[in-house]
Amino acid sequence: MCAFEQSEKGMEFNMQRIIVEVGSKSTNIDICYGKESNHILSLPIEFEEDYKKENKLVKEDIDKLIERVNILNVVYDDIHIFGTGIFRNLNEEDRKEFIEEFKERTGREFKILDNDEEKKLHEKGAIYLANRNN
């Protein structure tokens, strides 16, 4: 559910919002407008697999993500990036370093969802889809 509505002089308008979910194995990009959303792209980035090999986030994976976000930056203003899985498992120093580099290179915040936040969002999404298909 991606609703963003604002009333101006009694008229409602909807704003496009891009949601980027960065997981352990892939990055999903969705565009939301009003109460609807469309999946744009799934980009395979093997953060977890490469992390296991190197015991840290791999530069090539970070670069691939940042490149994609910077492409989105050219077209969209309202972009929200969320990390799950592997990002929760980073030690404090690696997490801080990644978030700072991401912000510096994209101009965007990178929010790492905790388990409860991720679970709640999945539940809301499932309920929304179930209601939409009825």
Give structural notes.
Strand 4 (26-33) and strand 5 form a beta hairpin. Mean pLDDT is 84; it is low at 3-14. The longest helix has 18 residues, at 115-132. This protein is an alpha/beta fold and 134 residues long. Helix 2 (59-75) packs parallel to helix 3. It is 43% helix and 29% strand. It has one domain: ATPase, nucleotide binding domain (Nucleotidyltransferase, domain 5, 2-Layer Sandwich). It is built from 4 helices and 7 strands; from the N terminus they run E-E-E-E-E-H-H-E-H-E-H.
Q: Could you list the spans in which at least 5 consecutive residues all have pLDDT below 50?
A: 3-14
The CATH topology label is: Nucleotidyltransferase, domain 5
Q: Order of helices and strands, N to C? A: EEEEEHHEHEH
Beta-strand percent range: 25-35%
* Rg of Cα set: 16 Å
Q: Structurally, how many domains make up the residues?
A: 1
Q: Overall pLDDT, averaged? A: 84
Structural class: alpha/beta
CATH architecture name = 2-Layer Sandwich
Strand neighbour order, sheet with most strands: 5-4-3-6-7
Major sheet, described briefly? 5 strands, mixed
According to CATH, the homologous superfamily is: ATPase, nucleotide binding domain
Name the assembly state: single chain
